[in-house]
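User: Teach me something about this protein's shape.
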Amino acid sequence: MRATSQNGVAIEFRNVYYRAGSGLEVLRGVGLTVERGQTMMLLGRSGSGKTTLLKLVNALFAPTEGEVLVEGKTTTEWDPIALRRGIGYVIQEAGLFPHFTVARNIGVVPRMLGWSDERISARVNELLDLVGLERGIAERYPRELSGGQRQRIGVARALAADPPILLMDEPFGALDAITRDELQREFRALQQRLQKTIVFVTHDLREGLLLGSKIALLESGQLVANLSPTEFRNSTDSRVQRYMRAFENDPQEQRGTQ
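Assistant: First, the predicted structure itself:
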């Protein structure tokens, strides 16, 4: 995938509606832009439409109305295989192939792209270093790893072919609090180095404030705010303030963003 838009916008939702097969309106008139190198946090309760927005980016879903553009082209104009190979994915529980070693899991996309074994092996070692794991872990299987190690491997796999865009669906949500905090901070440092364009689904405001360039708040399928973490903290919008009040009433969560 190469950049084709000229204005620094990597992903754009233009007045997007999405209705499920049952007729349920999941998204209603969403307009949102994600600039290159930005981490856009999609925040909201379960059922607010966060994961649906994510699946529209890689054309797993198609909008009922409106358009989704990736690098200046609508998702309907993209060849779906080319589109998806230009996007890395990190999901909850990592989603690793249990019968593949760590090295084979990381090398899945490069192998599909026809990379040589030597190039894949070098990339696996490079990525294990990048996510803070010993290279000797490469021949282990997912069942032999801790939850935190599996998530690190999930991030490495997403980065394997150096895609410009990452989609992340609550990747740290199933981890214990200490491991989640460690990985969030490591991920923030990694993003500062790599400057990928990231769309990140979360229901955790602490995570949004810590990791996001922008926080897009969704309620009942509508975008109700699109703010930087500082703007979110200081917003006078009653819907944003509800989240901040809940956050500020939990001292442990508040300390975690400092």
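Now, about its shape. Confidence is low (pLDDT under 50) at residues 253-258. The CA atoms of residues 178 and 234 lie 28 Å apart. If you'd like, I can walk through any region in more detail.
User: That's plenty for now, thanks!
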